[in-house]
Write a structure and sequence with these properties.
Helix content: under 10%
Shape: elongated
Mean pLDDT: 81
Number of strands: 12
Radius of gyration: 20 Å
Largest sheet: 4 strands, antiparallel
Strand content: over 45%
Number of helices: 2
Low-confidence stretches: 1-7
Distance between the termini: 28 Å
Structural class: mainly beta
Number of domains: 1
Order of helices and strands: HEEEEEEHEEEEEE
Length: 155
Amino acid sequence: MDKRKVKKDGRAFAAKELALIEIYKDPNYRIELYHNNKATDTMHLIIGKLISNDPSLPYFIFRWDENQDQFDVDIENVDNETKKKFKAGKDGYSGHHPRRSVYNGRHMEVDISLPNKKIFKGTIKVPVVREEVLNIYLTIDAHKITMEKENPFIF
């Protein structure tokens, strides 16, 4: 069964034309934004990564969080305790939850730090594409055409 067909329920399934305003980036890191990326069959949507030139340092994945209607930043290449600190914003780790910008649309202010080290600061605009299934039933007779929708709240 194709899970994407089952999940056409209005969730974001792709990110289009990402835009970046970079304020600061640690020189040991590079950012990759995945323009026109699509979600996997399990609806996992990665929109970008912040990758260190040094493989021993952590890297960061920008992952769409449908429940929050924005992306989260996940830290990788670290132990589970460090992941918990980053997610909770404790002990000098921060950046898991970008803030919504004052700009219109999905502009997220990203500010990623490790203890005593700023990694990245900037704004990323994330236009997402949503997919919805709509069932419309038309009845045609000699005098009129009537339409019924399966979900009356769509339209």
